[in-house]
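TASK: fixed-backbone design
INPUT:
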């Protein structure tokens, strides 16, 4: 079995401990057999049974678990660069949406694309993401709004699993009410409950159901109704919660035992108290905060309350048009006052927990997936402080190198 040695710093990122506990070994080694980690620890303590195995040399670099982007809107048509300028000029997200822009504009472009076109476009994004050290990606539907297009998006993701190495986790997203149902919202919610969700579950196209709860999307009661139908069909709940306005969505996430509550820029103390001890992961999306010029998620208050905070990109064409997860991690440090260690745990084991994958990936412990990344930095602080286009030297998924320059044999 291979052994990666001469690791300057290795962050295991186990689930135990608090947000800042990334379980660091210095002068470390990592051994794996097939797709699973066999051993990790100080290089000087490497078990004798590995003495004759292939040795790879990390050349004193940092090694971390494969990064997990636990909230993306990967499949979409077109871009919305003009809205970037409009927001800079003073228009708000809601102003743009009410004028016919925003999500509905992307819906029009997405409906025009074929499943093959969407899958090919997503494959291009994933090729770049794996080079950054991303090994697992959650991908949502939500830019179809009608059943045929929503299924098309989810089927495009299913096809992608056969075309590239990144592990995909799929989510059906109830995003907004389409224009044709503005005067018949209850009818659309009924369709989501009786037609969309059962068909998605029947075809096993998604594991999660997410609902965008906000003034321009679904109300709290509509979201509760949709998510209860999802749970009855075997889908796990997640929420876009309290992003633009406070709606009580954080409290709903806690009530339903959701896997995650995402955004939370406008969460109240009552919402934080509800999340504390609920097991719900708070997913921070600081790229959207940056692009919208919004106040950031109160990460320090959530962490102080014992709520695990994950970090993700929110990759989408409107408010977070980048899939650069290390950038999101650096922004979490600078905008939300998270330490680099806290941001790393947020993009690894806590992101895995937001996807119900914490027993399989997100940390480098014996028995976990051998998904790991070699970073051109001596430690986590230097990596996230000294932002570069790409500090990832090599990405391994299930013990196989899938991106970067070949790791030197010692």
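OUTPUT:
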């Amino acid at each position: 079995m291979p052994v990666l040695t001469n690791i300057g710093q290795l962050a295991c990122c186990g689930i135990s401990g608090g947000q800042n506990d990334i379980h660091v070994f210095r002068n470390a080694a990592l051994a794996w057999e097939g797709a699973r980690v066999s051993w990790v620890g100080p290089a000087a303590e490497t078990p004798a049974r590995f003495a004759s195995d292939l040795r790879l040399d990390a050349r004193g670099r940092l090694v971390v678990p494969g990064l997990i982007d636990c909230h993306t809107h990967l499949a979409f048509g077109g871009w919305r660069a003009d809205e970037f300028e409009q927001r800079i000029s003073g228009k708000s997200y809601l102003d743009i949406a009410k004028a016919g822009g925003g999500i509905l504009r992307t819906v029009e472009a997405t409906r025009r694309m074929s499943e093959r076109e969407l899958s090919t476009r997503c494959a291009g994004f994933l090729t770049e993401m794996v080079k950054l050290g991303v090994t697992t990606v959650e991908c949502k539907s939500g830019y179809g709004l009608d059943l045929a297009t929503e299924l098309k998006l989810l089927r495009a993701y299913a096809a992608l699993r056969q075309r590239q190495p990144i592990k995909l986790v799929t989510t059906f997203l109830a995003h907004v009410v389409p224009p044709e149902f503005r005067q018949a919202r209850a009818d659309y919610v009924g369709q989501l409950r009786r037609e969309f969700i059962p068909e998605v579950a029947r075809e096993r196209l998604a594991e999660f159901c997410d609902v965008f709860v906000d003034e321009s999307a679904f109300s709290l009661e509509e979201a509760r109704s949709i998510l209860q139908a999802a749970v009855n069909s075997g889908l796990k709940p997640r929420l876009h919660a309290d992003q633009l306005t406070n709606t009580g969505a954080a409290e709903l996430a806690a009530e339903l035992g959701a896997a995650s509550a995402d955004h939370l820029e406008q969460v109240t103390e009552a919402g934080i108290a509800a999340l504390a001890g609920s097991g719900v992961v708070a997913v921070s999306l600081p790229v959207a905060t940056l692009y919208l010029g919004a106040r950031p998620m109160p990460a320090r208050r959530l962490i102080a309350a014992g709520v695990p905070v994950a970090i993700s990109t929110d990759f989408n064409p409107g408010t977070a048009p980048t899939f650069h997860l290390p950038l999101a991690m650096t922004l979490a440090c600078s905008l939300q006052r998270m330490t680099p260690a806290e941001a790393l745990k947020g993009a690894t084991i806590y992101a895995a927990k937001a996807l119900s994958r914490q027993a399989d990936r997100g940390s480098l412990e014996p028995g976990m997936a051998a998904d790991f990344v070699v970073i051109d930095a001596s430690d986590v602080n230097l990596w996230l402080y000294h932002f570069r286009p790409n500090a990832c030297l090599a990405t391994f998924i299930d013990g196989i190198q899938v991106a970067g320059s070949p790791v030197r044999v010692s």
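COMMENT: The CA atoms of residues 286 and 332 lie 6 Å apart.
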